[in-house]
Amino acid sequence: MDIEELMPQQPEEDKAAQRKSPLISLEKDLGLYAESIKEVAVEIMVEGISANPIFVAHQHTVSIGEMILDRSELNTEWTIQASTLEEFIEKGIINPEKKALFLKSYKRPEDFMCVFVIVPEGANFIYYPYKTKQ
Question: In this predicted model, what pLDDT tens digit does every residue of 36-84 receive, in sequence order?
Fold first, then answer.
């Protein structure tokens, strides 16, 4: 599946807002969202849906996962959708032959959120640690 299939054509006004690094605002939003994302990750694992939750961070409309945090409702920059390794394989984002390689780099979901970040230039996986309470 190509990035264009995940993210339909976007309006021109969105492109101007993308010139500064989107990762700065993503880190801020992930910090705000961490507790909610961790709750969803635990729920996905406890209910036996998947041992490998993946969260999709985007600023547009994407066709993978289920929306859990909507940027327009929360007045933030990023929307988060919950998905799983199985859905990523089913949609062809992760090649079935690369599953073992992916799992080798997949970090403990109890400690890190696996985030598939989609921007107009492309997409990539990042692992963001859940903040430990001090």
Answer: 999 999 999 999 999 999 999 999 889 999 999 999 999 999 999 999 9
**Pairing of the two strands 53-58 and 112-119:** parallel
pTM score, two decimals? 0.82
In our burial notation (b when 16+ CB lie closer than 10 A, e otherwise), range 68-100 reads: bbebeeeebebbbbbbbbebbeeeebbeeeebe
Q: How far apart are CA 92 and CA 74, in angstroms?
A: 31
**Is residue 123 within 8 Å of 3, Cβ to Cβ?**
yes
Least Cα distance to 123 among 112, 115, 131 occurs for 115
Q: Name residue, tokens 């929360």.
A: 74
